[in-house]
Every structure is written in C-alpha cells, then in structure tokens.
Design goal:
The mean pLDDT is 93. The chain is mainly α. The protein has a single domain, classed as Lysozyme (Orthogonal Bundle). It is globular and about 40 Å long.
C-alpha cells in the first residue's frame, strides 16, 4: 500500500474526524510506522500464528477493550452486520480509529518530533509492549523502507 495514499485518504480523515486531541502529524507518522512494521504496509491482513488482523495487526480482544473503554469514538465507520474480525481485517477506517485509540490509552505524550527512532520507541512501549517480538530497530527499518 502506498504510504501517502494511506495518510491522506484514510489516516488523516479519520483522525481529524476524531478530534484535535487525536490528530497530529506525529500521530499520522506513528500510524504509518505501525502499519509498516506490523503488516509490511498492508501486505499481510491476518497474523500467521495468532488472532491479530488488518494493516495494524490488532487483536479482536484489544479492539473489544478499546470499544468498551471509549464507547467507540467513530462508530460511523463500522460496516453494518460485520463482526469484529471482519472490521479489523477489511475496514481501514475502523482499523485506523482503533489503532489510534490504542496509542491514546498510553498516558505518555506522543514524541515531539517525527524522528523514526522516537516513534519506534513509542510503538514498542504502547503498542507492541515489552513482551512483543518487535524491536525499535525493526520499526525504524520498516519506516525507512515504506514511509520515508
């Protein structure tokens, strides 16, 4: 998937609609990097050995938690009658809103710059977690490959 297409046709419209607390250029870059590292920029839509789905590789249980905590800001993006797994696999607007809210749960402020290493540290802390297999170095590598 083309990073600029994703940024300008999905990420920015979703985040702007969600409000000023959730949109920034750093938030856009963070979501682009997340897509790059989690799914090779949309190459993979289902985790090989696990439940994660979509371009951000979100687990249904995590999405359910986000929905329960936030009363889901952005329910206008839901596909009627589609289950959570289908929403996470094929609905880019929904996936983007959930991914941004996953980061929003972290009380640590977003990085102040677009530095890929700082974005990678933030991704590792708040999205991939300490027990996740991803590394900051892998985030930076994928960011440079797909986003820059």
């Amino acid at each position: 998937m083309n990073a600029n297409d994703l940024r300008f046709n999905v990420i920015r419209p979703v985040l702007v609609t969600m409000g000023t607390k959730l949109w920034s250029e750093v938030a856009e870059a963070l979501l682009l990097g997340t897509c790059a590292v989690e799914s090779d920029m949309g190459t993979f839509l289902k985790q090989t050995k696990g439940p994660a789905r979509g371009i951000y590789q979100i687990e249904p249980a995590t999405a359910g938690d986000v929905l329960a905590r936030h009363g889901f800001v952005g329910s206008q993006w839901l596909i009627p009658s589609a289950g959570i797994e289908l929403q996470l696999t094929g609905n880019l607007l929904f996936q983007t809103a959930i991914a941004r809210l996953i980061y929003y749960r972290d009380p640590t402020p977003l990085p102040a710059t677009l530095d890929p290493y700082l974005l990678g540290e933030y991704w590792k802390q708040g999205y991939n977690t300490k027990v996740g297999k991803g590394t900051v170095e892998l985030f930076v590598q994928k960011y440079q490959k797909y986003v820059k």
